[in-house]
């Protein structure tokens, strides 16, 4: 130790020793004060060592993102660039990028922070896009599994599922009364994949009915027979065909009506269908006591039908088309008869 230091130390101790005492209290213990000072200094150094680092994030490089556009990625991570950043900001950027994927419907996409040192202020984020590993159809009895898969392109094997599109596909699959499809997801057999099962509850799409009633027009026989038959999955393409009739069994002239329809569906337009229909009528009906109306003719028409987006449990359909009608009607009042054709 130098003389200057010794002299300073002696002077300090001497000065403390000759300081006038204003009370009977003992002078403070310098040893305790020195130990307290050393403890405070040690704690300060430890806190400095444990303090969270602050750094400048100059760039965030995203790897493996194929589902979002560049602008969508930049919008998610841009708020976390710049000086004064902490580790929490990197986690926030990761969370924001993952949230951006989920909001677009990509629920199987995750974002990881790989091990790195942040050299030159460059941070890396890895996007993990879990693809559909295997798609299976289970429980189908009357509908081909291959056609059900074809109607759900959003769940095709090897694709990253967008659940907004998945919902649309499932709604379209469930527009048929004889089939209900429910998707089920689980971790895939291969790493980084999800397996999907389409659980199907279906029934034979053949329907028919026959009814005998007494709903008749005045001055006609009382009984009526109504019958109908339809099939809803022609060619395994979901096409439908049906026929119906109304007859008066006691006197056929009182009611004789035949009708039929055909509905075609299109794989590339799942929300659209086209219906052709026709009716043949050959009956004499008296509706107003002394006024007799006899009508014979036919009606043919075509309809385009669009399934609108579902709202909750409700489905809406918009239809538009045209009809061709050709009827020959005779109206008889007393002894006079008038011909009033509709064409």
Helix-strand topology string: HHEEHEHEEEHHEEEEEEEEEE
State the CATH architecture of the largest domain.
Answer: Beta Barrel
Order of strands across the biggest sheet?
Answer: 9-10-11-12-13-14-15-16
Mean pLDDT: 83
Q: Work out the helicity level.
A: 10-25%
Oligomeric description of these chains: single chain
Shape: elongated
Overall tally of structural domains: 3
Q: How would you describe this structure to a colleague?
A:
- This protein is α+β, with helices and mostly antiparallel strands.
- It has 3 domains: 55-129, Ubiquitin-like (UB roll) (Roll); 131-202, Roll (Ubiquitin-like (UB roll)), CATH 3.10.20; 206-339, membrane protein fhac: a member of the omp85/tpsb transporter family (Porin, Beta Barrel), CATH 2.40.160.
- The chain is 23% helix and 45% strand.
- It has 6 helices and 16 strands.
- A hairpin with a 2-residue loop joins strand 13 and strand 14.
- Helix 3 runs antiparallel to helix 4 (87-103).
């Amino acid at each position: 130790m130098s003389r200057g230091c010794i002299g300073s130390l002696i002077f300090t101790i001497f000065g403390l020793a000759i300081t006038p005492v204003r009370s009977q209290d003992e002078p403070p213990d310098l040893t305790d004060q020195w130990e307290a000072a050393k403890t405070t200094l040690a704690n300060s150094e430890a806190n400095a060592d444990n303090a969270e680092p602050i750094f400048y994030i100059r760039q965030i490089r995203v790897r493996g993102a194929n589902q979002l556009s560049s602008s969508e990625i930049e919008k998610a991570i841009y708020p976390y660039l710049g000086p004064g950043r902490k580790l929490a900001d990197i986690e926030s950027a990761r969370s924001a990028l993952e949230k951006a994927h989920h909001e677009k419907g990509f629920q199987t996409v995750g974002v990881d922070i790989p091990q790195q040192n942040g050299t030159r202020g460059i941070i890396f984020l890895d996007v993990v896009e879990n693809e559909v590993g295997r798609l299976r159809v289970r429980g189908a009895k009357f509908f081909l599994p291959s056609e059900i898969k074809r109607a759900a392109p959003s769940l095709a094997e090897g694709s990253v599922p967008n659940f907004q599109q998945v919902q649309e596909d499932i709604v379209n699959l469930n527009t048929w009364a004889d089939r209900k499809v429910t998707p089920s997801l689980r971790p895939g057999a291969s790493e980084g994949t999800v397996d999907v099962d389409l659980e199907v509850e279906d029934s034979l799409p053949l329907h028919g009915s026959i009814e005998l009633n007494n709903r008749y027009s005045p001055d006609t026989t009382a009984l009526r027979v109504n019958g109908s038959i339809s099939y809803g999955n022609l060619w395994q393409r979901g096409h439908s065909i049906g026929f119906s009739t109304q007859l008066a069994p006691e006197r056929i002239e009182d009611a004789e009506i035949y009708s039929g329809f055909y509905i075609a569906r299109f794989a590339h337009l799942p929300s659209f269908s086209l219906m052709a229909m026709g009716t043949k009528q050959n009956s004499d009906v008296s509706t107003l006591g002394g006024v007799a109306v006899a009508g014979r003719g036919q009606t043919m028409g075509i309809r385009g039908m669009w399934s609108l987006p579902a709202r909750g449990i409700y489905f809406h359909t918009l239809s538009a088309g045209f009809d061709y009608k050709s009827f020959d009607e005779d109206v008889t009042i007393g002894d006079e008869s008038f011909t009033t054709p509709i064409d």
